[in-house]
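[retry 2/3] Nitrogenase iron-molybdenum cofactor biosynthesis protein NifE: previous attempt timed out, resubmitting with same input.
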Amino acid sequence: MGEVLRSKTAELFNEPGCAKNQAKSEKERKKGCSKPLVPGAAAGGCAFDGAKIALEPIVDVVHLTHGPSACEGNSWDNRHAATSGPSTYRLGLTTDLSELDIVMGNGEKRLYRAIKDAIARYDPPAVFVYQTCVPAMIGDDIEAVCRHAAEKTGTPCIPVLSAGFSGKKNFGNKLAGEALFKHVIGTIEPEYTTPTDVNILGEYNIVGEIWQIKPLLEKLGIRLLANITGDARYRDLAGAHRARVNMMMCSAALINLARQMEERWGIPYFEGSFYGIADTSAALRTLARMLIERGAPEDLLERTEALIAAEEARAWARIEPYREILKGKRVILYTGGVKSWSIVSALQEIGMKIVATSVRKSTEGDKERIKEIMDDPHMVGSVPAREMYAKLANDEADILLSGGKTQYVGLKARRPWLDINQERNYAYAGYDGTVALVAELAKSLSNPVWEEIRRPAPWEISADIVPLDCGPQSRSGVGEA
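[retry 2/3] Nitrogenase iron-molybdenum cofactor biosynthesis protein NifE: success.
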């Protein structure tokens, strides 16, 4: 099992579709883009976490973690991936390996029993089995167990070789894509196909964002064959090989899957974004153009332009009341990946100024897009909290947009903070999502509480006013006379 994992790791590190990786020498390319984790290091998520994030939004299957219960506990429901139907994906199932199981070598037997029990209880269309560090180290062959269980039960069992020590979270995304390509996509034929079938890769339906995108596609007669993986059904994923075009929402996550689908089934792909008005329009235009090249009706592009004109006019009309509040406001954007440039574009459209944008988890293509759309592209990597605090406290920025881990930096600096990462409670995709983002920014920046808490205390204004001094404290805690 160790050799299999090392071989697969090396193969994924040498990704032909990754421009950054291919720009390196052959020796450097073999080292890969991601360093293995050091046990105990705060690395922001392991490979198992990344694989679980990418696959858990498949809503009708059982997700079974093979390992100690803490692995499942730490990864369960850590994104607000919404469902329009089944909720099987929200079950937190684990084999709960104990020390006795490890010492006695019971891991594979325990896994097989867990698969059988899950199928008997929930009757899912498939079971996804996630490998964690412990079974990988003791040599449990989860691929063999999954093959045997599938033969005995008649239910597909998908092994995900996602041992946490194999790399960081982004690498786990690629391991998830590898599992889909090897075991799921192409295993079932869709009931019917159309000349406008498309897949979206790397969209996880955070707070229901795919429901802001899908209506736009439906108005154009474009059929979303499979959303990989937000609000996805197993059967749709299995038939995703019949799509005409693939759109990637985040190339850092599933570039290997997009590239492999193009090589095997001839499905062309492009990277786009549905964050911001301009980027949403550009994504729709590109989809229409590529579909026409592959046999869609010629009037699709004309209808796309008509829809874009109508939706943009409606969105700008709704944004207009917020312009004065947001114009010239300075933003620190601490996120990464596709959002490092797509959110920048959205903020600049409404007149805000980007003080800095993080390029953590961003590809070279992401960085090039930032340079194209920003006059003074101030790109930063991982910024220490004290530096971010200093920028906010010294009035170099008006608001911080980031994930939940850095919210207290903004709050300590007495500056507004808005959640832009996967833990957020509002959907920001498409035209309606952009309006929602603008409204939330305006509410945060105009909230009177920030002016109040930044106001100096009375004793900081006048030397005549001093804080109350209760005098020395006795042992009983009561001031002595």
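[retry 2/3] Nitrogenase iron-molybdenum cofactor biosynthesis protein NifE: The longest strand covers residues 197-203.
[retry 2/3] clearing retry counter.
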